[in-house]
Amino acid sequence: MKKRLVVLDFDGTITDAEEEGKPYVTGYAEDLRLLLGKKAEEVAPILLSAEAEIAANPGENGWLYNGLIVAPATVDPYLRMRAIARRVFDHFGAYADRTDRERLMDFLYTNNYSLSGVAFKDGASQMLCELCANAELVVYIVTNSHTEGVRKKLVTLSAGNDELTSMRERVIGGAKKYLVDGRPDHVAESVTLPGLSRPVYLRRSAYFEVLERLCETHGVGWEAVTVIGDIFELDLGIRYINVVVKS
After folding, report:
1. What does the alpha-carbon distance between residue 12 and residue 230 come to, in Å, rounded to a whole number?
2. 138 Cβ neighbours under 8 A, 6+ residues apart
3. What CA–CA distance (Å, rounded) separates 219 from 227?
4. Which of 150, 109, 170 is nearest to 14 (CA)?
5. Inter-axis angle of helices 98-113 and 22-36, to 10 degrees?
6. Which pLDDT value is given to residue 242?
7. Which positions of the chain have pLDDT values less than 50?
8. How many CB atoms within 10 Å of residue 19?
9. Which Gene3D superfamilies does this one have (predicted)?
10. Residue 190's beta-bridge partner residues?
């Protein structure tokens, strides 16, 4: 039986999100223009203005989902374009219905993710190889991205390496780490972090349930789980289930 469960995020953790996301940003911006029925010169300055406003106030801007900020907007191009798109739609008075807008932005993400390049962080292959070779660890990638898209990118990283080839079968996509709800109810609803004026919401049942199933499958408790990620709210905040309980 394995002794520890290691859970890695993918985009921005194993990959260089800024580098690989350049084609994504271009495609996303073009899709916005087409949806709005505007000329490029009409939309371009609004895109730039929105990006500048978000960069100037990173603590106040983020991925808005169901009325809550569930992640920062400045950490990678995927989240940044969601926040930019919201401001662009607001500027042109388009897609005002919240549900329609969320579905549309989900589509824009999915439609353009396939355009993103393949750029892994230095040392990513060595890190994964060493983790997978450790007999005391079982390693998974758990990501919001679609499973097949991540597996395709891993093909490049795992070329000629049997350990990393098997890693492709331990990818769990569509984790919905952004989904904030009332569960698990033994965890505080939110926590306040130094230097951040808004709350960080902790009750994310979809992600919690993915990790709970992995714990059950491999017979480990939460104390034996290590999470590696680049965004506190989407990755590392899950560890609060052991240390933060509602009063």
Report:
1. 6
2. 2, 4, 5, 6, 170, 218
3. 17
4. 150
5. 140
6. 58
7. 244-247
8. 14
9. HAD superfamily/HAD-like
10. 201
Record the tokens describing residue 82, joined without a space: 């969601």
Q: What's the 3-state SS for 53-114?
A: HHHHCCCCCEEEECCEEEEECCCCHHHHHHHHHHHHHHHHCCCCCHHHHHHHHHHHHHHHHC
Helix (H), strand (E) at residue 247: none
Question: Where do we find the tokens 């070779």?
Answer: 133
Neighbours of 239 (CB within 10 A): 15
CATH entry, 4-16+120-242, from 2.60.40.150, 3.40.50.1000, 3.40.50.150, 3.90.1150.10: 3.40.50.1000
d(CA 27, CA 174): 22
Q: Which residues contact residue 106 at a Cβ distance below 8 angstroms, ignoring those fewer than 6 apart?
A: none
The residues with which 201 forms a beta bridge, in sequence order, are 190
Whole-number Å distance between alpha carbons of 43 and 87: 11
CA 131 to chain CA mean position, Å: 22
Helix-helix angle 77-92:98-113, to 10 degrees: 140
- Which strand (E) or helix (H) includes residue 141? strand 137-142
Residue from 170, 167, 142 nearest 157 by CA: 167
Position 120: which residue type? F
